[in-house]
Amino acid sequence: MKELAVVSDGAVAVRDGKIVAVGDTRELESIVEVRDRDVIDATGKVVMPGFVDAHTHLVFAGSREQEFELRLQGAKWTEILKQGGGILNTVRATRNASIETLVRLGSAALDRMLSYGTTTVEAKSGYGLTLRDEIKILEAIAILDRQHAIDLVPTFVGAHAIPPEFRNKDDYVALVINEMIPKVAERGLAEFCDITCEDGVFCIEQSRRILEAAKQHGLRPKIHADEIVPLGGAELAAEVGAISAGHLIQASDRGIREMAKAGVIGTLLPGTAFCLMVSKYPDARTMIQHGLPIALGTDFNPGTSVTESMQMILTLSCLQMKMTPAETIVAATINAAHAINRAHEIGSLEVGKKADVIVLDVPNYKHIPYHFGVNLVEKVIKDGRVVVARNPNAGICYG
Ligand code: NIG
Ligand code: FE
Known about the structure:
By secondary structure, the protein is of the alpha/beta class. The protein has helices at residues 25-31, 65-72, 77-82, 87-96, 99-115, 131-147, 169-186, 204-216, 233-240, 253-262, 270-276, 284-289, 310-321, 325-331, 334-339, 367-370; strands spanning 10-15, 18-24, 46-49, 51-53, 118-124, 151-159, 192-197, 220-225, 244-247, 265-268, 294-296, 357-360, 377-382, 385-389. The strands form three sheets. It has an eight-stranded parallel beta sheet. The chain has a four-stranded antiparallel beta sheet with strand order 3-12-13-14, with no helix packed on it. Strand 1 (10-15) and strand 2 form a beta hairpin. Helix 5 (99-115) packs across helix 6 (131-147) and helix 9 (233-240) runs parallel beside helix 10. It binds N-(iminomethyl)-L-glutamic acid and fe (iii) ion. N-(iminomethyl)-L-glutamic acid is lined by residues 57, 86-87, 90, 160, 196, 224, 272, 299, 301-304.
Protein backbone atom coordinates (compact mmCIF):
# COMPACT_ATOMS: atom_id res chain seq x y z
CA MET A 1 0.00 0.00 0.00
CA LYS A 2 3.00 2.29 0.47
CA GLU A 3 3.92 2.46 -3.18
CA LEU A 4 2.17 4.07 -6.11
CA ALA A 5 3.41 3.37 -9.61
CA VAL A 6 3.66 7.04 -10.58
CA VAL A 7 4.58 7.77 -14.20
CA SER A 8 5.82 11.31 -14.60
CA ASP A 9 4.98 12.79 -17.99
CA GLY A 10 2.62 9.88 -18.50
CA ALA A 11 -0.35 9.31 -20.75
CA VAL A 12 -3.38 7.04 -20.89
CA ALA A 13 -4.86 5.93 -24.21
CA VAL A 14 -8.53 5.02 -24.30
CA ARG A 15 -10.71 3.36 -26.92
CA ASP A 16 -14.34 2.21 -26.69
CA GLY A 17 -14.48 2.94 -22.97
CA LYS A 18 -11.42 0.85 -22.12
CA ILE A 19 -7.79 1.63 -21.41
CA VAL A 20 -5.65 0.43 -24.34
CA ALA A 21 -2.24 1.78 -23.31
CA VAL A 22 -0.61 3.48 -20.31
CA GLY A 23 2.91 4.80 -19.91
CA ASP A 24 5.39 7.44 -20.97
CA THR A 25 3.75 10.07 -23.21
CA ARG A 26 6.42 9.95 -25.95
CA GLU A 27 6.36 6.17 -26.12
CA LEU A 28 2.58 6.15 -26.28
CA GLU A 29 2.57 8.73 -29.06
CA SER A 30 4.77 6.45 -31.12
CA ILE A 31 2.50 3.43 -30.78
CA VAL A 32 -1.00 4.92 -30.57
CA GLU A 33 -2.51 7.01 -33.33
CA VAL A 34 -4.36 10.00 -31.86
CA ARG A 35 -6.33 12.87 -33.32
CA ASP A 36 -5.59 16.21 -31.68
CA ARG A 37 -9.22 16.86 -30.89
CA ASP A 38 -9.36 13.69 -28.83
CA VAL A 39 -6.49 14.70 -26.58
CA ILE A 40 -7.09 15.92 -23.04
CA ASP A 41 -4.11 17.93 -21.90
CA ALA A 42 -3.34 17.32 -18.22
CA THR A 43 0.10 18.89 -18.16
CA GLY A 44 1.21 19.63 -14.61
CA LYS A 45 -1.75 17.77 -13.12
CA VAL A 46 -2.47 14.40 -11.56
CA VAL A 47 -4.26 11.73 -13.59
CA MET A 48 -5.43 8.70 -11.64
CA PRO A 49 -8.18 6.08 -11.47
CA GLY A 50 -11.60 7.35 -10.36
CA PHE A 51 -12.30 6.89 -6.66
CA VAL A 52 -14.15 3.74 -5.67
CA ASP A 53 -16.42 4.37 -2.68
CA ALA A 54 -16.55 0.93 -1.03
CA HIS A 55 -19.32 1.61 1.51
CA THR A 56 -22.36 3.88 1.24
CA HIS A 57 -26.00 3.98 2.33
CA LEU A 58 -26.87 5.85 -0.86
CA VAL A 59 -30.65 5.47 -1.01
CA PHE A 60 -32.78 7.11 1.69
CA ALA A 61 -35.27 9.92 2.17
CA GLY A 62 -35.29 12.76 4.69
CA SER A 63 -32.44 14.23 6.69
CA ARG A 64 -31.38 14.35 10.34
CA GLU A 65 -30.02 17.83 11.05
CA GLN A 66 -32.15 17.95 14.24
CA GLU A 67 -30.24 14.96 15.61
CA PHE A 68 -26.97 16.53 14.49
CA GLU A 69 -27.74 19.37 16.85
CA LEU A 70 -28.84 17.01 19.66
CA ARG A 71 -25.55 15.13 19.29
CA LEU A 72 -23.67 18.42 19.56
CA GLN A 73 -25.34 18.79 22.96
CA GLY A 74 -24.11 15.34 24.03
CA ALA A 75 -26.82 12.90 22.89
CA LYS A 76 -25.34 9.57 21.75
CA TRP A 77 -26.14 7.88 18.42
CA THR A 78 -27.08 4.59 20.16
CA GLU A 79 -29.40 6.40 22.63
CA ILE A 80 -31.13 8.27 19.81
CA LEU A 81 -31.67 4.93 18.02
CA LYS A 82 -33.07 3.29 21.19
CA GLN A 83 -35.59 6.13 21.47
CA GLY A 84 -36.84 5.44 17.94
CA GLY A 85 -34.71 8.06 16.17
CA GLY A 86 -31.50 7.62 14.21
CA ILE A 87 -31.76 4.90 11.57
CA LEU A 88 -35.48 4.50 12.46
CA ASN A 89 -36.09 8.18 11.74
CA THR A 90 -34.74 7.64 8.22
CA VAL A 91 -36.68 4.36 7.95
CA ARG A 92 -39.98 6.25 8.46
CA ALA A 93 -39.12 8.80 5.77
CA THR A 94 -37.86 6.12 3.36
CA ARG A 95 -40.94 3.92 3.79
CA ASN A 96 -43.12 6.94 2.96
CA ALA A 97 -41.11 7.81 -0.15
CA SER A 98 -41.97 6.51 -3.61
CA ILE A 99 -39.35 4.75 -5.69
CA GLU A 100 -39.32 7.82 -7.99
CA THR A 101 -38.44 10.07 -5.04
CA LEU A 102 -35.68 7.69 -3.93
CA VAL A 103 -34.24 7.64 -7.45
CA ARG A 104 -34.33 11.45 -7.63
CA LEU A 105 -32.58 11.86 -4.26
CA GLY A 106 -30.06 9.09 -4.99
CA SER A 107 -29.29 10.63 -8.37
CA ALA A 108 -28.55 14.02 -6.79
CA ALA A 109 -26.14 12.39 -4.33
CA LEU A 110 -24.48 10.49 -7.19
CA ASP A 111 -24.04 13.77 -9.10
CA ARG A 112 -22.14 15.17 -6.12
CA MET A 113 -20.05 12.02 -5.81
CA LEU A 114 -19.17 12.11 -9.51
CA SER A 115 -18.14 15.76 -9.38
CA TYR A 116 -15.79 14.83 -6.51
CA GLY A 117 -14.16 12.10 -8.61
CA THR A 118 -16.01 8.93 -7.58
CA THR A 119 -16.78 6.60 -10.48
CA THR A 120 -17.99 3.42 -8.70
CA VAL A 121 -20.10 3.21 -5.54
CA GLU A 122 -21.22 0.34 -3.35
CA ALA A 123 -24.82 1.09 -2.31
CA LYS A 124 -26.63 -0.55 0.60
CA SER A 125 -30.32 -0.96 1.31
CA GLY A 126 -31.36 -0.90 4.98
CA TYR A 127 -33.75 2.00 5.49
CA GLY A 128 -36.82 -0.05 4.55
CA LEU A 129 -36.80 -2.99 6.98
CA THR A 130 -39.86 -4.62 5.38
CA LEU A 131 -39.60 -6.96 2.42
CA ARG A 132 -41.50 -4.47 0.26
CA ASP A 133 -39.44 -1.44 1.25
CA GLU A 134 -36.07 -3.21 1.07
CA ILE A 135 -36.97 -4.38 -2.46
CA LYS A 136 -38.06 -0.82 -3.32
CA ILE A 137 -34.62 0.49 -2.28
CA LEU A 138 -32.75 -2.24 -4.16
CA GLU A 139 -34.85 -1.55 -7.25
CA ALA A 140 -34.01 2.15 -6.92
CA ILE A 141 -30.32 1.18 -6.81
CA ALA A 142 -30.76 -0.91 -9.99
CA ILE A 143 -32.48 2.01 -11.76
CA LEU A 144 -29.74 4.42 -10.66
CA ASP A 145 -27.08 2.01 -11.91
CA ARG A 146 -28.72 2.02 -15.35
CA GLN A 147 -29.47 5.78 -15.46
CA HIS A 148 -26.40 7.35 -13.89
CA ALA A 149 -22.81 7.44 -15.15
CA ILE A 150 -21.57 6.05 -11.84
CA ASP A 151 -21.55 2.26 -11.58
CA LEU A 152 -23.33 0.89 -8.52
CA VAL A 153 -22.71 -2.37 -6.67
CA PRO A 154 -25.75 -3.38 -4.57
CA THR A 155 -25.67 -4.73 -1.00
CA PHE A 156 -28.71 -5.94 0.95
CA VAL A 157 -28.84 -4.76 4.59
CA GLY A 158 -32.21 -5.97 5.86
CA ALA A 159 -30.49 -6.37 9.23
CA HIS A 160 -29.54 -2.69 9.53
CA ALA A 161 -31.73 -2.09 12.62
CA ILE A 162 -34.72 -3.70 14.33
CA PRO A 163 -37.92 -2.15 12.93
CA PRO A 164 -40.19 -0.55 15.55
CA GLU A 165 -43.10 -2.94 14.87
CA PHE A 166 -41.01 -5.93 16.05
CA ARG A 167 -40.93 -6.58 19.80
CA ASN A 168 -38.84 -9.71 19.45
CA LYS A 169 -35.52 -9.34 17.68
CA ASP A 170 -35.36 -13.02 16.75
CA ASP A 171 -38.69 -12.75 14.94
CA TYR A 172 -37.17 -10.07 12.73
CA VAL A 173 -34.01 -12.15 12.21
CA ALA A 174 -36.29 -14.99 11.07
CA LEU A 175 -38.01 -12.68 8.58
CA VAL A 176 -34.66 -11.56 7.17
CA ILE A 177 -33.46 -15.17 6.85
CA ASN A 178 -36.64 -16.86 5.66
CA GLU A 179 -38.20 -14.22 3.43
CA MET A 180 -35.97 -11.29 2.61
CA ILE A 181 -32.68 -13.02 1.74
CA PRO A 182 -34.29 -15.68 -0.52
CA LYS A 183 -36.37 -13.06 -2.38
CA VAL A 184 -33.49 -10.59 -2.84
CA ALA A 185 -31.21 -13.39 -4.05
CA GLU A 186 -33.83 -14.90 -6.36
CA ARG A 187 -34.40 -11.54 -8.04
CA GLY A 188 -30.66 -10.87 -8.32
CA LEU A 189 -31.07 -7.52 -6.57
CA ALA A 190 -27.86 -7.68 -4.48
CA GLU A 191 -24.38 -9.18 -4.57
CA PHE A 192 -23.58 -8.80 -0.89
CA CYS A 193 -25.39 -9.02 2.43
CA ASP A 194 -24.30 -6.66 5.21
CA ILE A 195 -25.47 -6.38 8.83
CA THR A 196 -25.17 -4.01 11.78
CA CYS A 197 -23.38 -6.19 14.32
CA GLU A 198 -23.48 -3.78 17.25
CA ASP A 199 -24.46 -3.55 20.90
CA GLY A 200 -28.25 -3.10 21.06
CA VAL A 201 -28.68 -3.96 17.37
CA PHE A 202 -27.71 -7.50 16.17
CA CYS A 203 -25.47 -9.66 18.36
CA ILE A 204 -22.74 -11.98 17.10
CA GLU A 205 -24.95 -15.05 17.10
CA GLN A 206 -27.74 -13.35 15.12
CA SER A 207 -25.22 -11.85 12.72
CA ARG A 208 -23.65 -15.27 12.16
CA ARG A 209 -27.04 -16.84 11.39
CA ILE A 210 -27.97 -14.11 8.92
CA LEU A 211 -24.62 -14.13 7.12
CA GLU A 212 -24.56 -17.93 6.87
CA ALA A 213 -28.06 -17.83 5.35
CA ALA A 214 -26.91 -15.13 2.92
CA LYS A 215 -23.99 -17.33 1.82
CA GLN A 216 -26.34 -20.22 1.12
CA HIS A 217 -28.24 -17.95 -1.26
CA GLY A 218 -25.10 -16.73 -3.00
CA LEU A 219 -24.84 -13.32 -1.29
CA ARG A 220 -21.30 -12.67 -0.03
CA PRO A 221 -21.11 -11.43 3.57
CA LYS A 222 -20.05 -7.98 4.71
CA ILE A 223 -20.26 -6.67 8.29
CA HIS A 224 -20.51 -3.36 10.13
CA ALA A 225 -18.09 -4.58 12.79
CA ASP A 226 -16.86 -3.25 16.12
CA GLU A 227 -17.78 0.38 15.45
CA ILE A 228 -19.00 1.49 18.85
CA VAL A 229 -18.16 -1.38 21.24
CA PRO A 230 -15.78 -4.33 20.72
CA LEU A 231 -18.27 -7.17 20.12
CA GLY A 232 -16.06 -9.51 18.09
CA GLY A 233 -17.35 -8.52 14.66
CA ALA A 234 -13.86 -8.66 13.18
CA GLU A 235 -13.46 -12.27 14.34
CA LEU A 236 -16.89 -13.09 12.91
CA ALA A 237 -15.91 -11.51 9.56
CA ALA A 238 -12.94 -13.91 9.41
CA GLU A 239 -15.05 -16.88 10.50
CA VAL A 240 -17.77 -16.43 7.86
CA GLY A 241 -15.27 -15.44 5.15
CA ALA A 242 -16.66 -11.94 4.63
CA ILE A 243 -15.28 -10.07 1.62
CA SER A 244 -14.87 -7.00 3.83
CA ALA A 245 -15.68 -5.64 7.27
CA GLY A 246 -16.50 -1.98 7.83
CA HIS A 247 -15.60 0.47 10.62
CA LEU A 248 -13.37 -1.62 13.00
CA ILE A 249 -12.78 1.29 15.39
CA GLN A 250 -12.86 -1.09 18.37
CA ALA A 251 -11.59 -4.22 16.59
CA SER A 252 -9.35 -6.42 18.74
CA ASP A 253 -5.80 -7.31 17.80
CA ARG A 254 -6.86 -10.90 17.44
CA GLY A 255 -9.75 -9.92 15.17
CA ILE A 256 -7.43 -7.93 12.92
CA ARG A 257 -4.98 -10.84 12.67
CA GLU A 258 -7.75 -13.29 11.90
CA MET A 259 -9.18 -11.03 9.23
CA ALA A 260 -5.77 -10.69 7.60
CA LYS A 261 -5.33 -14.48 7.63
CA ALA A 262 -8.79 -15.09 6.19
CA GLY A 263 -8.31 -12.54 3.39
CA VAL A 264 -10.98 -10.12 4.62
CA ILE A 265 -10.51 -6.48 3.60
CA GLY A 266 -10.85 -3.79 6.28
CA THR A 267 -13.05 -0.98 4.96
CA LEU A 268 -12.32 2.05 7.10
CA LEU A 269 -14.88 4.85 7.31
CA PRO A 270 -13.30 7.75 9.21
CA GLY A 271 -16.21 10.03 8.25
CA THR A 272 -18.25 8.36 11.02
CA ALA A 273 -15.71 8.89 13.82
CA PHE A 274 -15.46 12.51 12.68
CA CYS A 275 -19.22 12.98 12.51
CA LEU A 276 -19.88 11.14 15.81
CA MET A 277 -17.10 13.19 17.44
CA VAL A 278 -15.41 10.15 18.99
CA SER A 279 -11.73 10.50 19.76
CA LYS A 280 -10.87 6.98 18.64
CA TYR A 281 -10.39 6.22 14.95
CA PRO A 282 -9.65 2.80 13.45
CA ASP A 283 -6.06 1.77 14.13
CA ALA A 284 -4.98 1.75 10.50
CA ARG A 285 -1.26 1.58 11.29
CA THR A 286 -1.58 -1.67 13.29
CA MET A 287 -3.88 -3.11 10.62
CA ILE A 288 -1.39 -2.35 7.86
CA GLN A 289 1.43 -3.79 10.00
CA HIS A 290 -0.54 -7.02 10.35
CA GLY A 291 -0.90 -7.20 6.58
CA LEU A 292 -4.59 -6.32 6.50
CA PRO A 293 -5.52 -4.67 3.20
CA ILE A 294 -7.36 -1.41 3.85
CA ALA A 295 -10.10 0.06 1.69
CA LEU A 296 -11.84 3.38 2.26
CA GLY A 297 -15.42 4.57 1.91
CA THR A 298 -17.51 7.59 2.76
CA ASP A 299 -20.23 5.56 4.57
CA PHE A 300 -22.46 8.27 3.07
CA ASN A 301 -25.65 8.23 5.17
CA PRO A 302 -27.90 10.84 6.83
CA GLY A 303 -26.84 10.03 10.40
CA THR A 304 -23.19 9.23 10.92
CA SER A 305 -21.38 10.43 7.80
CA VAL A 306 -23.07 13.08 5.71
CA THR A 307 -20.51 13.46 2.94
CA GLU A 308 -20.18 12.32 -0.66
CA SER A 309 -16.53 13.33 -0.88
CA MET A 310 -13.80 10.69 -1.01
CA GLN A 311 -11.29 13.57 -1.00
CA MET A 312 -12.52 14.44 2.52
CA ILE A 313 -12.10 10.79 3.55
CA LEU A 314 -8.49 10.76 2.29
CA THR A 315 -7.71 13.83 4.39
CA LEU A 316 -9.29 12.29 7.52
CA SER A 317 -7.40 9.04 6.88
CA CYS A 318 -4.08 10.88 6.85
CA LEU A 319 -4.73 13.29 9.71
CA GLN A 320 -6.63 10.96 12.05
CA MET A 321 -5.34 7.49 11.15
CA LYS A 322 -1.80 8.43 10.10
CA MET A 323 -2.11 6.74 6.73
CA THR A 324 0.30 8.11 4.15
CA PRO A 325 -1.12 9.92 1.11
CA ALA A 326 -0.03 6.97 -1.07
CA GLU A 327 -1.78 4.47 1.22
CA THR A 328 -5.02 6.45 1.10
CA ILE A 329 -4.96 6.49 -2.70
CA VAL A 330 -4.41 2.71 -2.87
CA ALA A 331 -7.20 2.23 -0.31
CA ALA A 332 -9.61 4.48 -2.24
CA THR A 333 -8.99 2.87 -5.63
CA ILE A 334 -7.66 -0.67 -6.14
CA ASN A 335 -8.28 -1.95 -2.58
CA ALA A 336 -11.78 -0.47 -2.58
CA ALA A 337 -12.37 -2.24 -5.90
CA HIS A 338 -11.28 -5.52 -4.27
CA ALA A 339 -13.65 -4.87 -1.35
CA ILE A 340 -16.59 -4.89 -3.78
CA ASN A 341 -15.27 -7.63 -6.08
CA ARG A 342 -14.53 -5.31 -9.02
CA ALA A 343 -10.71 -5.26 -9.07
CA HIS A 344 -10.66 -7.09 -12.41
CA GLU A 345 -12.25 -4.09 -14.14
CA ILE A 346 -11.61 -0.91 -12.12
CA GLY A 347 -9.36 0.62 -9.45
CA SER A 348 -6.17 1.11 -11.45
CA LEU A 349 -5.03 2.50 -14.80
CA GLU A 350 -4.21 -0.78 -16.52
CA VAL A 351 -4.71 -2.00 -20.06
CA GLY A 352 -8.08 -3.73 -20.41
CA LYS A 353 -9.71 -1.99 -17.46
CA LYS A 354 -12.57 0.51 -17.73
CA ALA A 355 -11.42 4.02 -18.66
CA ASP A 356 -12.58 5.52 -15.35
CA VAL A 357 -10.04 8.31 -15.03
CA ILE A 358 -9.92 11.56 -13.08
CA VAL A 359 -7.79 14.65 -13.58
CA LEU A 360 -7.00 16.70 -10.47
CA ASP A 361 -5.67 20.22 -10.63
CA VAL A 362 -2.73 19.53 -8.31
CA PRO A 363 0.98 19.23 -9.08
CA ASN A 364 1.41 15.86 -7.34
CA TYR A 365 -0.74 13.28 -5.55
CA LYS A 366 0.31 14.37 -2.05
CA HIS A 367 -1.81 17.49 -2.50
CA ILE A 368 -4.98 15.41 -2.59
CA PRO A 369 -5.24 14.77 1.19
CA TYR A 370 -3.12 17.81 2.04
CA HIS A 371 -5.36 20.46 0.47
CA PHE A 372 -8.74 19.80 2.07
CA GLY A 373 -12.27 21.16 2.09
CA VAL A 374 -12.27 22.10 -1.60
CA ASN A 375 -12.87 20.02 -4.70
CA LEU A 376 -9.58 19.41 -6.52
CA VAL A 377 -11.14 17.38 -9.33
CA GLU A 378 -11.08 19.08 -12.71
CA LYS A 379 -12.29 16.32 -15.04
CA VAL A 380 -13.99 12.99 -14.66
CA ILE A 381 -13.83 10.47 -17.49
CA LYS A 382 -16.26 7.57 -17.06
CA ASP A 383 -16.14 4.63 -19.45
CA GLY A 384 -14.00 6.79 -21.72
CA ARG A 385 -16.39 9.77 -21.81
CA VAL A 386 -15.80 13.16 -20.19
CA VAL A 387 -18.72 13.48 -17.75
CA VAL A 388 -17.44 16.30 -15.54
CA ALA A 389 -15.34 19.27 -16.61
CA ARG A 390 -14.77 22.10 -14.15
CA ASN A 391 -12.20 24.67 -13.25
CA PRO A 392 -11.62 24.15 -9.53
CA ASN A 393 -8.66 26.37 -8.92
CA ALA A 394 -9.39 29.44 -10.98
CA GLY A 395 -7.14 32.11 -9.61
CA ILE A 396 -5.07 29.71 -7.53
CA CYS A 397 -1.51 29.20 -8.62
CA TYR A 398 0.92 26.67 -7.18
CA GLY A 399 4.35 28.27 -6.95
O1 NIG B 1 -22.62 2.84 8.89
N1 NIG B 1 -25.21 0.45 11.04
C1 NIG B 1 -24.96 1.59 10.96
N2 NIG B 1 -25.28 2.22 9.82
C2 NIG B 1 -24.75 3.49 9.50
C3 NIG B 1 -25.44 4.56 10.22
C4 NIG B 1 -26.74 4.81 9.62
C5 NIG B 1 -27.52 5.94 10.21
O2 NIG B 1 -27.24 6.49 11.28
O3 NIG B 1 -28.48 6.27 9.53
C6 NIG B 1 -23.26 3.51 9.67
O4 NIG B 1 -22.69 4.17 10.56
FE1 FE C 1 -22.36 2.00 7.11
